[in-house]
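seq as requested:
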Amino acid sequence: MAATPEFEFLSVRQDEAVLHVRLARPERLNAFAGTVRDDLRRVIERADGDPEIGCVVVSGEGRAFCAGGDVDVMHDIRRDDDLAAFAAILDAANRAALALRRCRVPTIALVHGAAAGGGANLALGCDVRWGSETASFTQSFIHLGLAPDWGGSRLLVEVVGLDRARELLLTGRTVRADEAQTLGLLHRVIEADALLEKGLDLARTLAGRSPTALQALDALLASAASGASFEDQLALERREQLACFDSAEARAAFEAFLARRKR
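struct tokens:
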């Protein structure tokens, strides 16, 4: 497993086809600072363009996943009335959120401790979200008189629906692990000691999936989310399924399945 020590607040390790990106500012609950937003975007874009990478895992070092934006930094910007500096932070967050959204490979968030503000929405931007019993989600923006960022206003609606998203954003209340799983913020809750191991096991499994099938899934889900008619969805399924069926991965998978059945 190779480490990449080029980033101040990120630890990046590659284990075969899995890229593990860990937010590494534990003394501040991994709150975003410095160039971490653009660094995260660069890492995701690098994984997206690397055919050797099949899955990206995002986690946090220490006792939290990510506390979102650094309130001390934002306070200083507010005190100085430096709106341009705050706009630059938002632009960097948007670039990272778009890179995550567009990433061709599956992404997994492993959430332990707090995921708040932009940190919560970073997790929501991942395809799979597993958490420990200590995991919590807080749409904390309203407490600072702010609106959501990192795509949270869209992601939260996609996950929990408009009505529940409104309640979570208006109250800014903290959602603990069990409720987070019920709402869909987490897909699974796992013992804290086993979260990383099981999450990386899942990543290795997803990294072995057919790239053609994954591309088809992305296209089909995007079409469904856009409100395509059932007829159009069927036509797209036909086109994508033919491409999958004709792929080298499908041929190999069929042969492997038949070989196992003959044993």
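The chain is about 50% helix and 15% strand.
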